[in-house]
């Protein structure tokens, strides 16, 4: 079965052929074989690399959809002493180019989520963060160039 298009969350409806439960690092696709939760193999064949989020769907050649679901991953949940402290922690995470998800409440950052790495954990704890191991779906922020797939044969400015 081939997937020839993407429909974003809230913009698709129809018969579901199955669900693709994928970790964040497997949700950027162009040409890739994905096995759905029911065993159906789907060849994703898109004109360009596309990042998928939970609730998006691959449009299959037979008119059905394969729903995208973020897989649970081993993560660290990180909290700071204040919003300002959390901003400092985000800076250190970003400075290391690590994928990071920011959980907010009423628009205010509350917690950060990153993939587990004991060296980073020690650094964050050394900066005063509370770091807890969790298993949860991971949807990190996309960088400024996320929609601009390219090598680095040119300069950014």
From TrEMBL:
Function recorded in the entry: Involved in urease metallocenter assembly. Binds nickel. Probably functions as a nickel donor during metallocenter assembly.
InterPro entries recorded: UreE, UreE_C_dom, UreE_N, UreE_N_sf
Primary location: cytoplasm
Keyword terms of this UniProt record: Chaperone, Cytoplasm, Nickel
UniProt protein name: Urease accessory protein UreE
Family: Belongs to the UreE family.
Biological-process GO terms, alphabetical: protein folding; protein-containing complex assembly; urea metabolic process
Domain UreE urease accessory N-terminal: 1-66
Source organism (scientific name): Pelagibacterium luteolum
Pfam families named among the record's database cross-references: UreE_C, UreE_N
